[in-house]
Structure formats: C-alpha cells, structure tokens
C-alpha cells in the first residue's frame, strides 16, 4: 500500500491508509496561493529526486483536507505516483504519501508507523505530506526524512483574508453577495468551515435570494445548520476548554482574566493551560489583560448555546466578584525593641544615665575601647547613629532636659529590659 487520500482515510484497519481517489469536481481554492506555491516548490524538489516532509498545520475547519486534495492533484500533474498498491510503482517516478491527522492512526502516542515504513524509500524521490492540528502529532517527525537530499517544509493554514472569504461565498452562491449579506458573511471571520456552513445553511432555509448578478439576504438570522456544527465542535473539546469557552462568551466578546478566574474558580496556572489550548484552535485570542473571540459568528453561536437563565446567573456572579471588597493589605505592626543580651542591656542603661565612655568603662571594669566597640555594635543592631536614637529604638523614654535630679535621665518603657541575659 502506498498512499493515503486527504480526508478519506477509510481503508481497512490493517492497512490504515487508503488510495488517492480520482479528483471530484472542486470549486477553486481561494486565499491559499502562497501556501500552494510553497507546496509546489516542495513537489518540484521531490520530482527532481529529493525527499521532502511537508507538514500542514491548521485548526479544525481551516480547510486542511481541501488543501491536501489540491496538493495531491498538483502532484499527479507533476508525474507523481499516488495510487498503486503493488510496491512503490515505477522506479523512475516520484512517490507522494498523504496523511491527514496521522496521530489518529498510530499504535502508541507519538508514533507514525507509516512514515517509518516508507523511510527506506529515501534513496528515491519521495514527498510525505502530513496534515495535523496544532499541538498534535510527533514533535520529531522531521528527522524521518532520511535521504541525504532531504528537506522539510512547514505550512500553516490560518483564516482567509476578507476578499478571499467573499470570493468563496460568491463561488458557492454563483453570484457576488450584496452589502447586507457581506456584513453577515464577515462575521465568520474568514473561518473556511463556518463560512461554507453559513452559506449552505442560509440557502437551505431559504434566507437568500440569488439573482443573475447578486445574492441578497432575505432574513438576517443564524441557520440551524451552524448550531449543529457548533455542538459538534464543542463536543470535540475537553470539558475544561468547553467550560472556559462558554463562560467567556457569556461575559462578552471580550472578558477580563479576573472575571474568568472569579467564575471558573481555578488558579491562574490552570487557566493558562486551558487558554493555550483554546488559542491554538483559533477560537480565543489573549491580549495583555483580556480574552477575546476573534470570530464574531462563533461568539454569537457559543452565547446562544448557553440557556438564558444561566447567562444571567453567570453575569451576576461576575458583577458580584467585581463589587466584592478586596482584602486590604494591612501595614506590618511596628517592630518591638531589638533583642539585646545582658551586656548590651547594661550598656544601654548606662547610656540612659548619661555616662561617658570612660565612666561606663570604670563602672563595668572594661576598657573605654571595649565600650566603644559595644556601642558601635548596638548602633548597627538598631540601625541608628546616635545615643538618643539608641535609647528610643531600645524602648527608653526621651531624655528630660529639665530634670535637675541626679541619676538616670530616662526610664525604660515596659518590656524594654525583658529578655536580656545576665552579665
């Protein structure tokens, strides 16, 4: 078995890959000119005898399958073998292998057995075209291009630019859309799947009138077809992602991170992981402080998926969280007197009596130099540079300049001498 068709992987489980079927009739592929040009260069390199691994990444609904089909058609026009079950086909023809979401066909996480199976083909022209969603598939797939002339190419499919999106709608309708319809179509934000389903849904419910020169909107409302599509998209998401998406939508097209944290009751680190997942799908975008729905139509659909009573309750919860008084940081209580040992307490008492260094030295039986050393250590411990400040920081009252009585000029405040050791 040699190839896989993009988006039609319906082969028996033992083979895990199907043949490239003949091309069905397609409308033109709009808005992917640059991406197709890069794929063409890779195919031309392979046609000249090289080996290439082309990875195509895009969120669900971005048109990966359609893009793969176009690449396969291009490869066949360049002479590639894409559909023989018997060996590798003619030795002088390049080979194309197409895999859509190959991680779905692996036996173990991160394994892509088909790529490994075809790695020995590296001495002959080979292009491996692998499409996957962002964040899935083996992170180290590139080294599987093992031939000496191998190279890699990474193509990312984003949303369509507005002119290309309107051209897609015109192709589907058979006429350019009128201004009111243009406004509705722009709500799809260039998301290919939403755009196509919107046009098909409007046509199914007869909300359009298509003339020879223009397609007009009869009634501006979201077709049921899109609501079904959204339910399918939501069911594909993990519970945490679905929860975040619906809460964020109810709070508005833009919401603050604080509001989301209040309602979801999760730590910021947990919210970060879920947001990363949703940003990779293109459903949400994150600014400096706000979370936003880039796609207006998707936002409206998600809001409508939440019952009205729950919408009201969620909005009240967010409002209550904003109005709740925030805890005020209280100033730290003033530090008490520093913890002094017995000798230090005795020196502070003598300073309070107004003695000089020499007098304190005689009283304590030590040298004036030692007294000076102890005073410097006390200044450092209390963060002061004067005797008056030392007394204040160690819990003594300010000196009384008017006291004529001999003896201590100040007295300790309660607790100033507690905790000190004996000399």
3D architecture notes:
By secondary structure, the protein is of the alpha/beta class. The chain folds into four domains: 125 residues, Rossmann fold (3-Layer(aba) Sandwich); 65 residues; 86 residues, Arc Repressor Mutant, subunit A (Orthogonal Bundle), CATH 1.10.10.10; 85 residues, Arc Repressor Mutant, subunit A. The chain has 16 helices and nine strands. It has a four-stranded parallel β-sheet, covered by helices on one side. The protein has a three-stranded antiparallel β-sheet with strand order 7-9-8. Strands 5-6 form a two-stranded antiparallel sheet. It comes from Streptomyces violaceoruber. Keywords: DNA-binding, Transcription, Transcription regulation. This is HTH luxR-type domain-containing protein. GO terms for molecular function: DNA binding.
Topology:
Elements: H1 33-47, E1 51-58, H2 64-77, E2 95-100, H3 113-118, E3 126-132, E4 150-157, H4 162-173, H5 179-186, H6 192-204, E5 208-210, E6 215-217, H7 224-235, H8 239-251, E7 254-256, H9 257-264, H10 268-281, E8 285-286, E9 290-292, H11 296-304, H12 308-323, H13 342-352, H14 357-364, H15 368-382, H16 387-393
Parallel strand pairs: 1-3, 1-4, 2-3
Antiparallel strand pairs: 5-6, 7-9, 8-9
Keywords: DNA-binding, Transcription, Transcription regulation
GO molecular function: DNA binding
Domain HTH luxR-type: 333-398
Largest sheet: 4 strands, parallel
Number of beta-strand segments: 9
CATH class of the largest domain: Alpha Beta
From the alpha carbons, calculate the radius of gyration and give it in angstroms. Answer: 38 Å
The percent range for helix content is: 40-55%
SSE class:
alpha/beta
What's the pLDDT, averaged over the residues? 77
InterPro entries: Sig_transdc_resp-reg_C-effctor, Tscrpt_reg_LuxR_C, WH-like_DNA-bd_sf
Keywords: DNA-binding, Transcription, Transcription regulation
Protein name: HTH luxR-type domain-containing protein
GO molecular function: DNA binding
